[in-house]
Design a protein that fits this description.
homotetramer; 386 residues; eight-stranded parallel beta sheet; globular; alpha/beta
């Protein structure tokens, strides 16, 4: 069955389809493709856009003429394929200079360099049309908390974010920031470990209105957290500026598997949340193909990510239209006229009335919620037997 | 060696030393003691204060005269021992009425009852002098996300918190709220899974200034998160209103072990943070004795919690005074006059100057940070061989 | 859609459908049913058999006449419904006497009592026709390894198993043992944490031929392990005497959810293994309904377990008949005539020939395995869109 | 304080002190040293021996003359420093040919090549005196169980081990095998995930007497398992042929930290087990220095591993000599003359006598075990305040 991906803003980073299959225990299995080649590959599979770290596009030591050459070829590929660049980001983790962090390094030289590199990378992203700028501080953390004071690290991180929001304003860029949390790897412990930490951190910034989050499935799963709940909080706060879709078993190394690869049910609940709340920013598949694959396998991987999203979106419609499920949900959350006076804005009288009300605890407790039934029906929708 | 606990505000909940050793696979091993008896036990071991859920003190179905009797005996025990009640909280999880949550239940009757119960419990806490009121929403969550919309749950939770802060203001209580996160257990997934999520949630409330957090070691460890970093963020935000100390292996059921029982090193880094930042609110040992223990063992447990804190606080002084460690840390974070102009408030000129600066990446990267040495010296301080 | 459960030996323990919804943070939500009532409930939902711990059937302090009465009613219910009792087991964890273990307790009185209790429970199981006897040593472990020597614990455990196999032989019982591993909860660490540990332990017993394993999905998932691989090893060793089906997120408290509740894909791979290898011993759903449920919900839960197995068994047939998938698998594992001489029994000449052979590493490495495609097709079979 | 390492067989792999600090998110931070240089470094810090994978010593494409040159320099370094090579192993994971496994690859060419490579690597190890040969099957596993049948994989793995034990016998090598388990990374799931699985697997081999295990702290910790219990089972089975010491937080990526870096208490219990049972095979520190370090930091790392072991070994002596702890332990496990007749070999009479005995469950259950006290005293020994 074919799916029309054009109704969604499906994007891939250059580093995802461009991943060469190396890992800590093994060498590259796929030859490196140029940024332009990767854009053509993404065009072939039907993606909407492509994202990049500065150094995915331009090597850190590229000369101006090398940079120019690469950018020209990349631009042409974008034009040829119709792909856009909705998001860009900075690589603040690969180079040895960041061995102990970038914005939170103890070394002021490193912190200053990180700012410089990010300003340049923002310029590059904006040059290609990015309207979302992601921050993933892969090296902002510690192995041993003897080595660095965490409160100071928060302050350093905030200083950097404040500086960079001002830089964006000063340059009149149409750019919002999206902060991406991760609990660990490559650092033993990364600061702002969860999307919740990031949402809280944002509120301490000078320009919180410019800053949202970029939650990633795999990152919350590494901590064994319910990703859908993290995303729901971001939605509730109006902060879901971008999202990274992939998959990952709980409590494991960073796996970055194809969307839905590990757990179709949790993927379904996520898609349901995004569809129900009409999420319309880009959905970026921040994942890579297995090490067993060649570039045909990379295309299988990329198409699989998008197909799974579309299949699950259809299942969401089915779930929302399922009369049996919806009847139970409606019954469970039915308004109760006797209770209505107790909700809404506080008043002294309301509190007094509520305190005076007699609840029949046993009767209320005895209500059947039929959650086993709802969940089993959900499973059967997912399995296509309903 | 003896330690003087009186310099710290060490508290225990009635439910901690009063835990009877039951678990999902086993019956009580210790007979239940009365609240007053538990206060005397805490007095004997040298605690500063005692905390309670409403139903730790008063059974949910206590008659007014039963309640009076219990309160009188409890008050007398407090007077006899000199213990105070710095914190109180509501049991919104044990009774079957809360089987699908309290503030986030789909059922408006349950939500209303939860508000009523909390208002009464606040009154009770204030009656005994509590200035901190903790919220742990043990049933606010889902097993299956088919059963409840998480965004709606956030809204319900916020409505409850807003109502209750108004209630406190209306009554002129000197009371602040402290929200306690937990990722799961007893629910499959609990909303606001981490302290970070709670800090973010607070910023969406009507009276954020009245609301802080009560992080608990075990709860963040269940998600394999660095607890010290979570606490650091709360400190950084001025929101560390209370703290629950205990211990727990990562990725396991809720163990609530004696402070320092599992990992002395992570306990040390936590104590270091609290001491370095002069934390002076109560430190509550939210833990219980092993099932193998009688009440003498419960006292061993309680004394052990406090002793370990004091021992680690001494180690913090030693660490802070260790010339070799401090020299490395100072060297690593030394200011660099060439960099100073790039920090502080943003300006167009500053950005331009920074962009124009040439960094010698390789030289900066080559700096030795001596983190293996710092961490090993820390271990040797902890082991008492330095 | 209806499924015919009668082709499978689906069983439930009395403790599963009889679970009253209590947990460490909450009281019972369902009233306790008698063993006979539970048998009728299981008959209604279409189960094949029922299992029990001694004290599920007979309270630990039951008088002979009480026991007789209960057994008579239970027998009648079995006769009325046609259910059988394929498996029985001992409760060696609930009573306070087992607070520090049963067979591995440091106290010889406890070890002796555990043997006595198990002999009696074996008699009871055999009385009702059980041919499999499960051992789950829920209290055999430690919180702190300062309290007990683990090697000694292994010896104690072995002594008990040897004694009890002799008891079975001596009595001429047609009974095999199945050992069930769990990594933790209720103990901080349980000995023989995984099915692998149990398989290894069996080989040190006097009668290994009488002893196999009873792997449980949730228990291996608590350690984040691939359950299918554990079961495969048991199958490979001829030791899969029984299996406990349920579900559980990785790295969490013991959740005992409905089969397939958390992860349909891992459930599918498990069913595939069992079906492909024609597993024909009982499949026991060792799980319980959510705390939100009444007994109608318990029936939904029980039916859901069995339905999910049957649906997945159908998917296994589809997978095995899928020409595209099977072609890739066949291609990947095709025999190579040049290699055939190198396999099979060792010989000096074979080793020499193999050492002399020149492999073209790059060409071999370049083969595309199409694992992304296989896995995505599997997902689409599971989702019912293929 | 200085420690004398010469009483222990402390070894390091070439890949440990030779690790250049690269990880999936970052480039090398330390330049690569030659094998000979690494031996000198190990000599400087006081190690007993050095281990290697074939390709740590000889690049996979080394010409005979290159190989000769490297071996000569390596031999000289060994002679100069007095270091020995107690263990060697095969790299069956780095080259792309092993992208889907070595011994368990679906491709017979890969399986044959893996045998060939291992025979050559065994020859190389024996040439340098190795008496232990480790097998770590880093690529033997799956991401998706749709791609490979696990039972077949076990058979392939067994065939390889049987072939290779015969090879060793045929060549008259004085060499034993030690199998090393790991649950995941770099594969999604690795077969034989725990030491328990390996011990069970060994019993299915043709020459189990030649094969033991090489447990690694970090690998069991990745699955959140108690490492000491895994090692105890290996000791109990006479299979602890080798051990890999390092450290790692539970449920995380493969961290390979300095021994004792994460959890001094679990390291203590491990050292206690090894010392109490007079383990005398090599103890290999399979770890690497932080990415923040230069080669001086690598030496700090290596010395720290050994110092921590020695410090903990001293603590073991103190624990074993602590009268208060030992008195409690003795009391808890005291023999009971009334029970003695019930233990030892089974007999019909013994079973009958035991069944007839009346146990006073409540009295036995009421015994205080003082485990909180034992554990707190252990903590205070560890902290050096007792």
């Amino acid at each position: 069955m074919e799916y029309d991906f054009s109704t969604k803003k499906f994007t891939f980073g250059l580093w995802t389809v461009g991943n060469t299959g190396a890992d800590p225990f093994g060498a590259n299995v796929r030859e490196k493709l140029s940024p332009a080649d990767l854009v053509y590959l993404l065009g072939e599979v039907g993606a909407y856009g492509v994202n990049f770290h500065d150094n995915d596009l331009l090597p850190i030591d590229a000369t101006p003429s090398e940079a120019n050459h690469i950018k020209k070829a990349f631009r042409k590929a974008l034009d040829d394929t119709g792909l856009v660049v909705p998001m860009a980001t900075t690589n603040l983790f690969f180079d040895p200079i960041f061995k102990d962090g970038a914005f939170t390094s103890s070394d002021p030289k490193v912190r200053a360099y990180a700012l410089q590199k990010t300003m340049n990378a923002i310029d590059l992203g904006v040059e290609f049309g990015a309207e979302i700028y992601v921050f993933w501080g892969g090296r902002e953390g510690t192995e041993s908390d003897a080595t660095k004071d965490a409160v100071t690290a928060f302050k350093h991180n905030r200083e950097a974010m404040n500086f960079l929001t001002e830089y964006v304003i000063d340059n009149g860029y149409n750019l919002r920031f999206a902060l991406e949390a991760k609990p660990n790897e490559p650092r033993g412990n990364i600061f702002n470990a969860t999307t919740g930490n990031m949402l809280a951190f944002i509120e301490t910034l000078d320009h919180p209105e410019m800053v949202g989050v970029n939650p990633e499935v795999a990152h919350e799963h590494m901590a064994g957290l319910n990703f859908t709940h993290q995303v729901a909080q971001a939605l509730d706060a109006g902060k879901l500026f971008h999202i990274d879709l992939n998959d990952q078993a709980f409590g494991r190394y960073d796996q970055d598997f194809r969307f839905g690869m590990v757990n179709l049910k949790s993927a379904f609940f996520l898609v349901k949340l995004l569809e129900d709340y009409h999420y319309s920013n880009p959905a970026s598949f921040d994942a890579h193909a297995f090490r067993t694959e060649d570039y045909e396998g990379v295309k299988d991987f990329a198409r699989g990510c998008m197909r799974t999203y579309m299949i699950l979106a259809d299942k969401v419609k089915q779930f929302n239209a399922d009369a049996e499920i919806q009847a139970i949900l409606a019954k469970n959350s039915a308004q109760d006229p006797a209770m209505t006076p107790f909700f809404g804005a506080y008043s002294t009288d309301k509190a007094a009335a509520l305190k005076a009300y007699t609840f029949d605890r046993k009767t209320i407790a005895a209500r059947s919620l039929q959650y086993e039934k709802i969940d089993q029906l959900t499973n059967e929708i997912l399995l296509g037997v309903r």
